[in-house]
Amino acid sequence: MCGITGWASFHHDARTQTPVIEAMTATLAPRGPDAGGVWLGERAAIGHRRLAVIDLAGGAQPMTDRPDTPTLVLGHSGEIYNHHELRAELRGRGHRFRTRSDTEVVLRAYAEWGEAVAEHLDGMFAFAVWDERAERLLLVRDRLGVKPLFWAAVDGGVAFASEPKALFRHPEIRPRVDADGLREAYSLLFNTGPTVWSGVREVEPGGLLVLDRDGIRERRYWQLEAGAHEDDRDATVDRIGSLISTAARGQLEADVPLCSLLSGGIDSTVLTALLADELRLREGPDARIRSCAVDYSDQAERFTGDVLRTGHDTPYAIEAGAFIGTDHSTVVLDPRTLLDPEHRRAVVVARDSPIGVGDMDTSLYLLFGEIRRHSTVALSGEAADEVFGGYPWFHDRRALAADTFPWLLVTGDEAAMPLNPELDLRIGEFRDDTYRDALAAVPHLDGETPTEHRQRELQHLSLTRWLRQLLHRKDRLSMARGLEVRVPYCDHRLVQYAFDTPWALKSFDGREKSLLRAAGTGLAPASVLHRSKNHYPATHHPDYNRGLQELARDALAVEQVRALADETRLKPCLDTPPERLEWGHRLRLERVVDLALWLDHNKPQLAL
């Protein structure tokens, strides 16, 4: 796992810009604490920071096809899970390899297939290839958007980076926010493409960008399609189990210590069980995978349910770890540490965005820091809810009938910081327009019933929007601690197969995630298999709420914050007794605090 950055321009000689590419690359040091390097040619510059995971000695980057006069230069972030198979195929086609790294497989694969290289890769990845002979830059992002890749136009070309902060070290790109950026940030619609930053865009998941002397061209090489499903229930359950198992096995490879994130929910438990079984096959019956969870010191006594949480995770995680036979540990956090301004600032800096989820972000950041003490790679159950229909909105008649994004029925406007009405951002109109565009992108099959039609829409919206912000969160907060997190449920073959499966099969037992529960039978204790969906834990300590209110009052003393926030609607959140502060109102305060930190760190130009 790594960080990449650079640019290509036909108007300037990059060879004179060593300080620029070094400064851009340095911003990504947390993503790659093990090594760094830069390459400069006449028309392009590429920088790389490395987190060494596979072939520790041989995977240095930027990587070139030849040491003396390179014709291809690659900056690669992520992991290619089918690199062994591709290496064998490419050797059969006459390619020779100098290293064991998956990075060199990407480089040789580009030499063989050009921009069609992406269609041959299985994994999570974002990479840039500069082709000296063709004078062409290729930017590619994995199918589900697990790994980030941003770009912005510069004179005669484009600059790119794993994170926007690197782009802002380029002399032509400045942190600037306009009304469109605020709409993107605070509408909670999770568009992919435009960002909060004016002029900064994302390469689409499953997409690529080509820059040559003819200009910039973007296209999608993969997207969800609607296909017929021919398997009966038993065959479907078997196929789901096989796809999950294959993804888990393929993502267990590493030359560094790894672990599994085990929350005590069905998603992480089934995954951890499969990983544990595979590890025992490889290393012997006594091999034990390490598993990790997070909790708060007061959670057992103070837990109270809310719209997203139904129970205390820790007892289930401990039971699941014992059932599977893992080396399990729980990172227990004092809720008061989540108020530490330095932790909060680190989270906002990592995310490059004022939109986060407060204490849940800070606790995840602290959890990843503790995990990094003993592991470099962690495997996560992220995406199972989107793939198998685990969220409440898949089972809520209001969501089936609503003419809006389904998560807004759960979070509502209370989850977004209220913006100053004088800005006249027309968020409601923006949501309506975006929703219509999003529905137009959903593929359908002829003959679908109204229920199947709507459920396909809900799943597509969840996979192409809601999931992406969760993947961003996990990538940024893990990579800020130099930890690689892999997400086997994002395997594109599993995602496509589940997307094609009729809703009647996805919910055949009348509950959420029916197929995953059936496929996981025997892999998890019954208590875990049958517990309700539970969101990432949040603290319930009134001292945290009290401290948050104080931080929010301090934030509202900042002139720029007051110019953006609606103080009238925030006042009830500040005046509510801490022990009675509800989740939605607390999240408003979290975002006020994050906004102040984000403005102070980035000092963006506000063009409103």
Short description, anyone?
With 608 residues, the chain is α/β, with parallel strands linked by helices. Helices cover 41% and strands 17% of the residues.
CATH architecture title of the largest domain: 3-Layer(aba) Sandwich
Class of secondary structure makeup: alpha/beta
> Which CATH top level class of the largest domain fits?
Alpha Beta
What name goes with the CATH superfamily of the largest domain? HUPs
Share of residues in strands: 15-25%
Overall average pLDDT: 95
Rg (CA only): 24 Å
Number of strands: 19
Taken together, the total number of domains comes to: 3
Ordered list of secondary-structure elements with their pairings:
Layout: E1 2-9, H1 18-26, E2 35-40, E3 44-50, E4 63-64, E5 72-80, H2 83-92, H3 102-113, E6 123-131, E7 136-141, E8 150-154, E9 157-161, H4 164-167, E10 176-178, H5 179-186, E11 200-202, E12 207-212, E13 215-220, H6 233-250, E14 258-261, H7 266-283, E15 290-296, H8 299-302, H9 314-324, E16 327-333, H10 341-351, H11 359-371, E17 377-379, H12 384-388, H13 397-401, H14 408-411, H15 427-440, H16 450-479, E18 484-486, H17 492-500, H18 503-506, H19 514-519, H20 526-529, H21 542-556, H22 559-564, H23 567-575, H24 583-602, E19 605-607
Parallel strand pairs: 10-19, 14-15, 14-17, 15-16, 17-18
Antiparallel strand pairs: 1-3, 1-9, 2-3, 4-5, 5-6, 6-7, 7-12, 8-9, 8-11, 12-13
